[in-house]
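OP here, attaching both records as promised.
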Amino acid sequence: MTAPERGFPDDEFAARCAAMQAAMAREGVDAMLFASEPEIRYFTGFLTPFWQSPTRPWFLVLPPEGKPVAVIPSIGGPLMRSCYAGEVITWSSPAAEDDGISLLRDVLRRYLGTTGRLGMMMGRETALRMPLADFLALQDSMQGTMNNMALHNMTAAVQRIRMVKSRREIAKIRHICGLACDVFEGLPAWVGAGIPLSGLFRQFKSEALGAGVDDVSYLVGSAGPDGYDDIIAPPSDRPLAAGDVLMLDTGCVWDGYFCDFDRNFAIGSASQTVRDAHYRLDDAVEAALDVVRPGIAARDLFLAMDAVLRPDGIDLVEGDDVGRYGHGLGIQLTETPSHAAWDTTELAAGMVLTLEPSLIYTAADGGPRMMVAEENILLTDAGAELLTRRAPRELHVLD
């Protein structure tokens, strides 16, 4: 498998910034302030695992035109200067009193003047990655030169831009999906009864790294007789046993872009109840593939899958408490939109989405079990292109 070129040329970031600046002009915003990893990386290419440390704040200011201005700790200066940033202002961080706030204030004053409007991310799936006390101090420090630092929520505009991927982004996601599919397809050769789930997780990560992924940032799963009842817990040391259903859900990364899909397996044998659950999930995926096209809403995908999973409009057992049947995908494991009954986001060509139906059913022991399926797709003008190699309709039974 030939890998795409790593990174992006400057024209990719220039287009992203220009799209954001056009949105700023439409909404009367004089500058954008970003303080979280996805947005700083999206607009500059600043890719580093150093975000794992919560110690230092990082700021990016996007002016009405031109390249963004980075206000960051000096430890990140060399990397940021190689990225798409017009000016890189640094300080020694962590600092006891003023951890970059006065520098950030001075940059914002250039663009906001005395009556400017500052755009920020404030909505669903966003977070302000700086101490609240520092943000309040920034507001206070701006009052001396402004009548009021007016804040404007630009979440929707940023998310609309990020939801539609460029051809280079799509190539990276397609590549990581292919690598992870290879790992899943090789799994039957080394998984069977007696293997502890914790050991299986370690082996999966080893296989994925050996296949060429950069990182296995996300790996969850579960196993139990006739099914599982948890899809986010870390693995236990319990050995797999005949009659178990195993699920692994991975978010592998290549050059900063995620895949996100799962696969289900039965150990030794599978009951008809388990097989039927797998059929129903496959039917739900098919229903979504039948209706997905540009112009429909994210909720339409939910409704198409839900009609298969809960044809009577009621929960099968206790209800599906996962909350949605898929989401966007890209530089984050989960992005907007959500395939949920409330999400009216209009889908457009170039979006990368997951289809993730789930259901709860009754196992042979009378208890509830869960099963989840997931595929990754690219939305095109013609409909959907699978980026993952779709799971077979028949549940794979491992000897």
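Record two, same layout:
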Amino acid sequence: MKIELFRTILCPRCLFVSRILKKIVADSPHLELETVEVATNLTRFRQAGIKTVPAIRVGNEILTGLILTPRKIRCFIEQHLPDEAC
């Protein structure tokens, strides 16, 4: 399953979320993380319908917020896993 992280290099919250996602992906070989730098991919950012960073997209659903806790991120990802992957 592909997880997209939309972030900017200067955003401390983005760095925090990136670290959490890297740990989650390292523990789950069926997950793939793609990091999208908003400053160099503004068109893709807009086309995704995202308004703020950090933002995590799985399929057509987006998780964003000022405070994304490890639990909130993990729950968002787990709700998108197929039954056989759980």
